[in-house]
Amino acid sequence: GAGVSQSPSNKVTEKGKDVELRCDPISGHTALYWYRQSLGQGLEFLIYFQGNSAPDKSGLPSDRFSAERTGGSVSTLTIQRTQQEDSAVYLCASSPLLDLSYNEQFFGPGTRLTVL
Amino acid sequence: AQTVTQSQPEMSVQEAETVTLSCTYDTSESDYYLFWYKQPPSRQMILVIRQEAYKQQNATENRFSVNFQKAAKSFSLKISDSQLGDAAMYFCAYRATGTASKLTFGTGTRLQVTL
Asked: Which end of chain A is more exposed for a tag (fewer CB within 10 A), N or C?
């Protein structure tokens, strides 16, 4: 079946503008994760969704960052008043939630955000 | 908090040779998962291999194998018979047990494969 998809693939914006990044998880995957990969860094966790609720938002770096998930499927990560330090690749991953078993996270290709 | 450290920003290996990528981690948990992911220029993260901490036997997947030293909190990846297609960024990652735990990543090692 189809993998995790993300759009847009690349986004260039001006400082101060708002941006929305979209993630379409694998159908049927209950869990959805957002990660950020800054230049020369590993991936850092941003937020986790189980269904439509977000039990772990601990990685969101500021209140300019928010995310929602609707219908247990598509998720949108919104960054308000973008800053140059927000420039990074934003990766989404989804996972089935199978009790008492290993749940692999499947990653999308990411959105490269550049803030000028 | 858990941390993952990859001390080799770049490595190079000749085609058909063997290379080992290093990773250390810190955790107070006794049971957890460890992973190696490959990220080619396409940015798609690909799972290479995983290790459950409660298993003493080192995981292997074809040309890829790990050396898991739980007491030393070390988790290295060995790539045998290196191929040009192995060139990529490699990330070591940790995950606590629990059905929905997040991944904690190292900063990555860029692997070059030369002819």
From this structure: N
